[in-house]
Specification:
extended, mainly alpha, 9 helices
């Protein structure tokens, strides 16, 4: 029975392929609009191995990596700073929420003017959207750090910077890593 549970995630894929094949076979949709799974995978394989699709796919991975790294590099320290001081967070909360509610694609014309027509524009738009998401969640991760650990560090004589680095940063790491992974998956 446990061996069958390993195959459970593939059931949905098998059902999708079966419905897709049946739809093509029954000609419910014009084959020009919905080719068979076999011809689709064949075209994908050719495009990935000898066509431009493989190059474009690798370029997308490169842009995603750069944008996530830039976003994390900017947003994690700012999120820790904002999360460690409620006064600072409350003073800029409106700006964060304003930009967070603005779709990154709406900022594309601005980034186009700033960076031109190359990859920097695409990377900066993606980094902008990712940075806001990471910033907001890291700040909440720091704000929700266990108060007992913070108090224990202070009682033991840790400086504010040491508490920030050793306690709050480490407390926010699980949420930070989840956010970064979510951003990567979301961008793909």
């Amino acid at each position: 029975m446990k061996r069958l549970q390993v195959l459970l995630p593939f059931v949905g894929v098998a059902v999708l392929l079966a419905v897709w094949s049946l739809t093509v076979w029954a000609r419910v949709v014009d084959p020009a609009l919905l080719p068979s799974p076999i011809s689709t995978f064949r075209a994908m394989w050719i495009g990935m191995t000898s066509g431009k699709l493989g190059v474009d796919f690798l370029k997308t991975i490169e842009r995603t990596t750069y944008s996530t790294a830039i976003a994390a590099e900017i947003a994690i320290p700012l999120g820790i700073l904002l999360g460690s001081s409620e006064k600072v967070y409350r003073s800029v909360e409106f700006l964060i929420d304003l930009f967070r509610s603005t779709p990154a694609s709406a900022m594309f014309p601005l980034f186009l003017v700033l960076f031109g027509l190359d990859d920097r524009t695409k990377i900066s738009v993606a980094a902008f959207g990712a940075a806001l998401l990471i910033l907001f969640n890291v700040a909440y991760g720091v704000m929700n750090a266990r108060k007992m650990r913070i108090l224990a560090a202070r009682v033991m004589g840790a400086s504010r910077l040491r508490v920030l680095w050793d306690v709050m940063l480490l407390e926010s790491l699980p949420q930070t890593f989840v956010d970064c992974v979510t951003v990567c998956r979301w961008r793909w």
